[in-house]
Amino acid sequence: MKKYFDAKYKELPIGGLIEEAGNAEKYVTGTWGTFKPVFNAEICIQCFFCWVYCPDSSILVKDGKVVDIDYVHCKGCAICSTECPTKPEKAIVMVKK
Length: 97
Ligand code: SF4
Ligand code: SF4
Known about the structure:
Alpha-Beta Plaits, alpha+beta
């Protein structure tokens, strides 16, 4: 039996290997999500919670202000919208793609 599993294991294709840290920006991951965040600058209070929590560095900042979303790398995880503190409306809302 062990022999059988050893043989099957060798037939498996080699999976993705991460050979260097911080290489996420080299990959287009923006097509992965079903939802995307939409930023509303008029409501934003510039607290930077979204920027701190985004796991893909997809919150775009210019001249010290959050200005937009990097849709090339955003995976649509919704953490930015969840953490956005503005009320009653959030400055980042998730919409279906
Ligand atoms: S949805 Fe996720 S990946 Fe996209 S900007 Fe928000 S926190 Fe970042
Ligand atoms: S978390 Fe919301 S209010 Fe804070 S900077 Fe991001 S979009 Fe603006």
